[in-house]
Design goal:
The chain is α+β, with helices and mostly antiparallel strands and about 140 residues long. About 20% of the residues lie in helices and about 30% in strands. The strands form two sheets. Strands 6-5-4-3-7 form a five-stranded antiparallel sheet. A two-stranded antiparallel ribbon has the order 1-2. The model has no long low-confidence stretch (mean pLDDT about 80).
């Protein structure tokens, strides 16, 4: 229903000319305006509260990143500790799968005896040692 407002000039005996506005319906009939109740607040749709607060995602991301980097750092420290504890006559396995006995340990170089019958020795970097088989409990 479209409301049409027209300004009408009315004349009366008391006032020479008076302009008033009256709302009209589309058929031209006068329409009465009902005052709204002052006690009723206007209806405003509220947003639904999020299931999780936004800061929770930041906390979870920080924990995830911490866990992501913590594992490799811990493993690296354990490997460094194991390499530093290597001694002569320890049986070790390299990361390439070669099993031998340590003959000599220098700064970053370890000499392994891989064959007893031929007295075959190889030199490997200390970082190439994957596991100390002598310290392993079986």
């Amino acid at each position: 229903m479209n409301n049409v407002w027209i300004l009408a000039q009315t004349e009366s005996d008391e006032a020479p000319s008076k302009i008033s506005s009256t709302p009209l319906t589309s058929e031209g009939e006068a329409m009465t305006k009902v005052p709204s109740d002052a006690n009723v607040p206007p209806t405003v749709k509220e947003r639904p509260k999020p299931l999780f607060p936004p800061w929770l995602f930041l906390v979870l991301a920080a924990v995830f990143i911490f866990m992501l980097f913590r594992g490799p750092q811990k493993k690296q420290k354990e490997h460094k500790k194991m390499v530093q504890s290597l001694q002569k006559n320890d049986k070790v396995r390299t990361i390439g799968g070669i099993i031998g006995t340590i003959v000599d340990v220098k700064d970053d170089e370890i000499t392994l005896k891989v064959d007893e019958s031929n007295n075959t020795k190889i030199k490997v970097a200390s970082s190439a040692i994957g596991k100390n088989l002598s310290k392993e409990k079986t």
